Amino acid sequence: MSAPLFNDYLMHFCGKNKTPRQAQAVLESILRRGRFIPSKCPLFDDPDGALERRHFQAWASMVCFTDLRFQDLQHHMQKFGMYGLAIKKDSELARRCQPVHYVEVGSITQENSRRLSEGIRHLRDLQRQGKLDRNWDFPAALNAFDDLRVATMQDIKTRDENEWRFIALRKDDVLEFAPRDVRFLLVETWTQANRWNQRLNDPREAYLYPYGRADVMAIPVELILGTAPPRRRAG
Description:
Low-confidence stretches: none
Number of strands: 12
Structural class: alpha+beta
Number of helices: 8
Order of helices and strands: EHEEHEHEEEHHEEEEHHEH
Mean pLDDT: 88
Strand order of the largest sheet: 1-5-11-12
Distance between the termini: 43 Å
Largest sheet: 4 strands, mixed
Helix content: 25-40%
Shape: elongated
Radius of gyration: 20 Å
Number of domains: 2
Oligomer: single chain
């Protein structure tokens, strides 16, 4: 039987451009507070600002995940680091995430997307000017849908990331989780995994012990791949 194309969990990596110590500190911080805090990201690679000038670029506050299988993670970890946590796909917080829609930058699809957004803004302008019923809630609902739609778009160059996103629609939006929602933790080495698993099962670790009680374990990249991939230098 062939392996499934996707997993029953989503992985969030937190080691990009960080030393092992820094990455593990971020991982512990996420577990202690029990929530992911979105950060603002551009949707398309735009080093010279050309897309921004053509109104193709978009920004969104998000938390990023991948549902790549273990055997497909090596390239991904070279970019995003070897530390993170997996959340169960059948959890409530995973249901607040969506797979991204990969598009070719400058394509007809992206141009049509921009025109659709402009049309919705025009519809709302007409309503504000009193040319449409101000009590009609459809333009606002359509605008909210469009904001979410645009925020799930991504440059097709990165389609090998199998990305999912939680999109923050308000400034105070966060993605909260409980220990039961976490499938496992990912660290680089056996030594680190042993240390983490001791802490997860130590009642004196007030913030981490509930994860151990929920059967969360730390898994080393060395176990998954046989050896850890080369690490990019932090900086």
